[in-house]
Amino acid sequence: MGRGKGSSIGWIAGVSRGQILFEMDGVGLSNAQQAATLAAHKLCSSTKFVQWSPNGRPGNLSEWGIPIGDNYGSSYGTTEPGEELKSI
């Protein structure tokens, strides 16, 4: 009894607000931005490309992980391809 639930059609994972989904190392900035843009089109939410700063955290996140600047009503805000990141 209880086995007739059907097969699963996919997987889902919860993502917290401000969570970094992908980290890239060893590739150029333009290649990383292009890969992030392609990946962002597959996600069903708005994303933002962030770049690590010398102080050891993303350049557009505060020390508590809260996005700085315009968020456009989403957890990360949006960055168009080729748009420059704001520095702290």
Automatic annotation (TrEMBL):
GO terms for cellular component: mitochondrial large ribosomal subunit. One of its GO terms (biological process) is mitochondrial translation. Keywords: Mitochondrion, Ribonucleoprotein, Ribosomal protein. Its main location: mitochondrion. InterPro entries: Ribosomal_uL16 (IPR047873), Ribosomal_uL16_bact-type (IPR000114), Ribosomal_uL16_dom (IPR016180), Ribosomal_uL16_sf (IPR036920). GO terms for molecular function: rRNA binding; structural constituent of ribosome. It is found in: Mitochondrion. Coiled coil: none annotated. Belongs to the universal ribosomal protein uL16 family. This is Large ribosomal subunit protein uL16m. It comes from Anisodus tanguticus.
